[in-house]
Amino acid sequence: MFLEVQHIVKSFGEEKVVKDLNFSLESKQTLSILGKSGCGKTTMLKTIGGLVASDSGKILLNGEDITETKPEKRNIVYLYQEDLLFPHLNAFENIAFGLRLKKIPEGLIKEEVNHMLQSLELEGQADKMPTELSGGQRQRVSFGRAISTNPSLLLLDEPFGSLDTGTRQRMQELFKKLTAEYKITSLFVTHDLKEAVLMGDQIGFMHDGILKVYEDKKDFIQDPETGVQNEIDFWGGLI
Amino acid sequence: MRINWKSFVLSLAVLLILFPFIYLVFLSLASEWRFPEVWPSYLGFKNWVTVFGSETGLLESFFSSLLISLSVAVFSTASGFLISKAVFYHPKKRILTLLAYFPYILAPVVFAACLSFFFLKMGLFGNMTGVVVAQFIIAFPYALLFFSSFWNEKVKSYEDLVATLGGNKWQTYTKVLLPLAKGLILICFFQTFLISWFEYGLTSIIGIGKVQTLTIKVFLFIKEANYYYGALSCCLLIFPPVVLLYFNKRYVFKKLV
User: Fold this and answer.
1) Which residue is closest to B183 within chain A, CA to CA?
2) Do A77 and B163 make contact, defined as CB atoms within 8 angstroms?
3) Which of A22, B37, B65, B66 could form a disulfide with B213 if both were Cys (CB 3.0 to 4.6 A apart)?
4) Across the interface, which of B154, B166, B176 has its CB nearest the CB of A98?
5) For residue B182, which of B83, B254, B242, B243 has the smallest C-alpha distance?
6) Dihedral of CA B189/B63/B195/B229: which sign?
7) What phi, psi does B99 have (nearest 5°)?
């Protein structure tokens, strides 16, 4: 397995936010994680990304124990719901940011970023500052910035949560295209049922700090805890 | 004929604001101006030539003040920025922020009197280093409180993002935090420079007359009733803040708006 998370526990004071987290993920796969607000999804992602230290447990990435590794050495990029574009840099420089940190030659950066802009359908937007871009464009630049560094693992924390329905749908399609093109392994956290089903090769459901990963999508749909059955009953009742 | 009251009042206000400054320059050029003479018997650069000839040590005071204020502004802005970050992430940040107000509870003269024993013991009494340290004690909490508004959850998210993109602490500062805070840093530098530049009470006690900043010199001239030199030193006193204000307006505020 490419990613193995073993018995991760994280508490804040008296409150146990993540309880015995156990799951694994194959390379180039996306695991969608569904859960309500406050169930521990963000803490789980931040623990895997190294931004929050776990109390106990182990994280293995490509066979290597990264539990104690600093976030900058993990090659795991964490994407927020907010695009967090650097306001002092234009779209090109925002995408190039991670590459510049790695001191990649200028010519290669130009080539990579221009290719990325093309993949993100952002041709002609390179010189625009973040304030001149729309919500969807900003989120695409944010994606580009994360993917251009060629991360081992991408952690997405409700990345489309702030977008309108149409833009969200386009972004979902673009994400699927990019994950295939750049062979990305990712954990995709969302509280949207449909999005979880659409985006993930595998689906997990998190409740009260415990993550349950389903063997296949059918198990997920049939589990009454996930709320899929309620949803089906609701829409079925309208017909 | 209709009078445009708005522009009239505006012109009057500008004139009233500018008058003291114009008068100071005029006074610095004058000498032997006795009542009831309407115009001074001498008007020229005699006072300025004397100053630049270092007869009264004004130029020396000007450069001393400049050195002290620049040191205080650089140290307090830099440390204020860095330490305000540590305070923001500290679990007891409220108490620490409250402590930063402490130097302002006391009048600067009283505060200096409280500190004088320690300064004497450390050999910082009556020298420039002592004055810089004393003024830093006043300017640093200001910088700390000033930058406390910069740190928030979004900035924390930026820091985390840079880390996951592979950036180390130095890169986080140079490529993100400093560019984000550039405007605030320049304003803080300007404000702490001014705090130091016009500081009198603390400087006079810790400097014990041996460190004569321009502000101290102005008061000395006024005490001696040498209005012409007093006006001249006031001109020198105003000049650096005006230059800073110009740069602030031109390069900082324009970018902040």
Assistant:
1) A88
2) no
3) B65
4) B166
5) B254
6) negative
7) -65, -30
Contacts of B156 in chain A (CB under 8 A): none
For residue A79, the number of C-alpha atoms closer than 13 Å in the C-beta half-sphere is 27
Fill in the DSSP letter of residue A30: E
Residue A195 has pLDDT above 50, yes or no: yes
User: Shortest CA distance to B76 belongs to which of B205, B191, B245, B171?
Assistant: B191
Displacement of CA B191 from its chain's centroid (Å): 6
Quick one: average pLDDT of A98-118?
93
To test the contact with chain A by mutation, choose from B155, B161, B174 the residue with the greatest count of A C-beta atoms within 10 A, namely B161
Residues A140, A126: Cα–Cα separation, whole Å: 12
ipTM of the complex: 0.88
* DSSP letter assigned to residue A107: H
Higher-confidence residue of A65 and B38: namely A65
Residue B95 burial (CB < 10 Å; 0-12/13-18/19+)?
exposed
**Structural domains of chain A sorted by starting position, each given as residue range(s) with its CATH number in brackets:** 3-238 (3.40.50.300)
CA nearest A116: which of A88, A134, A135, A93?
Answer: A93
Residue contact B164–A50, C-beta within 8 A: yes
Q: Domain B57-150+183-256: which CATH class?
A: mainly alpha
Where do we find the tokens 């009831």?
A: B36
Sheet holding A153-157, edge to edge: A76-79, A153-157, A186-190, A30-35, A202-207, A210-213
B179 and A149 in contact by Cβ < 8 A?
Answer: no
Report chain B's C-alpha Rg in angstroms: 23
pLDDT for B252: 63
Q: How many CA atoms lie within 13 A of A230 on its CB side?
A: 5
Its sign, for the CA torsion B15, B16, B21, B27, is positive
Average pLDDT, chain A: 89
Model confidence at B84: pLDDT above 60: yes
A224 vs chain B: nearest CA distance in angstroms?
A: 36
Distance between CA atoms of residues A113 and A97, nearest Å = 10
Q: Please, are residues A156 and A84 in contact by the beta-carbon 8 Å criterion?
A: no
